Amino acid sequence: MNNLNKGEIMNNLTKVGVTALAGSLMSLSVSAGEMSVSGTAEVTYTTNGAALTGNPYGMKNNITFKGSGDVNGNAVSYQTTMNDAGSATVSTLLTVDMGAMGLVGFDQGMSSFGVDGADDSILPTAYEEPSHGGGTGSLGVSGSQNVFGYKNTFMGVALNLEYNPNYELTDNPDGSYSGVTADVAATTTVDEAEESSNKGASLNYVLSYELMDGATIGFGQTNTDGNASGSTNVGYVKYATGPVSVGYFMNDQQNNTVGSIGKETEGYSIAFAVNDSLSLSYAEREITFSNITAVDTGEDNKGVMASYTMGGASMRVAHTEHDAVGGVAGTNVDNTEVSLVLAF
């Protein structure tokens, strides 16, 4: 038996420990990431027809942190945006790009996956969609709180998928959960409120295909369980050639609630890039409210947009007109918004 002193024993144990640690780290290779910070400041002037009674000026500041790195050959990206306007105090997105296997992510408010970002915003415009400033939403699914997403392309068909375990529009901090266990009978007002907050799981997707250079068609569908939720089908086509872009979309949205009013929507837009700085657009949208117990009603939206960018400064103008909002005759809104954005 070899005689080893205490120092030699400790050296041998250290070598064994280092070798074991190195072997375990072979399965997880992480490169140093990079983090960048950017921000925007926006000042707006808004008129809303006869409804304007107060100060028309508003302001919003965004600060965005972006990070990226490499984990086992997969590109990992992180982004969080803080908004002092209160509309979306913090929005966060974490993604892992696995190459041919696709991109997966967890989204809290960025609307990066599924039908979330495919309502009227699929129309090419210089600034906002035609429903901006008073129109009725027609998608039936909005918001991206606590959702998992997946993107990939198969034989030229792009898939954009989103899954929400419980469609509540609530951001969960770490170590917490949303939703409640309500009394099945909902015997009290508190029980009813708890029960209504459990919206059920939501799965939605968009498939798109480029027919030829500049021409894209797409189809999306949502399916949401629970109270006051339902399904939506959306289809669209977009074409861009030179400075001109045109688009057309239609969607049908129905709720699970018995007797609820469904929505059938179609719209189109045309946008023109005058030069590298100036863009103009015109868009229209029409909603039909399918009323089971009464006559169907409709809402019309029109929008003229302009955007001028010079360096880090952008001036945008949106004028929209909304007739019979919510299908109510005589409920008309004209909205004009002027926005100045400075990017840093």
**N→C terminal distance:** 71 Å
Q: Estimate percent helicity.
A: under 10%
Biggest sheet: strand arrangement: 1-2-3-4-5-6-7-8-9-10-11-12-13-14-15-16
Instruction: Name the average pLDDT.
Output: 81
Note the total helix count. 2
Radius of gyration of CA atoms, rounded to a whole number:
26 Å
User: So, the CATH homologous superfamily of the domain at 35-65 and 124-143 and 203-343?
Assistant: Porin
Task: Tell me what portion of residues adopts beta-strand conformation.
Answer: over 45%
- Low-confidence runs of at least 5 consecutive residues: 12-26, 190-195
* Helix and strand element order: HEEEEEEEHEEEEEEEEE
Q: Per CATH, what is the topology of the domain at 35-65 and 124-143 and 203-343?
A: Porin
Please give the structural blueprint.
Blueprint: H1 6-25, E1 34-47, E2 57-71, E3 74-83, E4 90-97, E5 103-108, E6 147-154, E7 157-164, H2 189-197, E8 202-212, E9 215-224, E10 230-241, E11 244-255, E12 262-273, E13 278-290, E14 297-310, E15 313-323, E16 333-343
Antiparallel strand pairs: 1-2, 1-16, 2-3, 3-4, 4-5, 5-6, 6-7, 7-8, 8-9, 9-10, 10-11, 11-12, 12-13, 13-14, 14-15, 15-16
Summarize the structure.
The chain is mainly beta and 344 residues long. It has helices at 6-25, 189-197, and strands spanning 34-47, 57-71, 74-83, 90-97, 103-108, 147-154, 157-164, 202-212, 215-224, 230-241, 244-255, 262-273, 278-290, 297-310, 313-323, 333-343. The radius of gyration is 26 Å and the shape is globular.
How would you describe the overall organization of this protein?
By secondary structure, the chain is mostly beta strands. The protein has a domain at 35-65 and 124-143 and 203-343: Porin. It is built from two helices and 16 strands. It has helices at 6-25, 189-197, and strands at residues 34-47, 57-71, 74-83, 90-97, 103-108, 147-154, 157-164, 202-212, 215-224, 230-241, 244-255, 262-273, 278-290, 297-310, 313-323, 333-343. The protein has a 16-stranded antiparallel beta barrel. Strand 3 and strand 4 (90-97) form a beta hairpin. It is globular, with a radius of gyration of 26 Å. The chain starts with 5 loop residues before the first helix and ends with a strand.
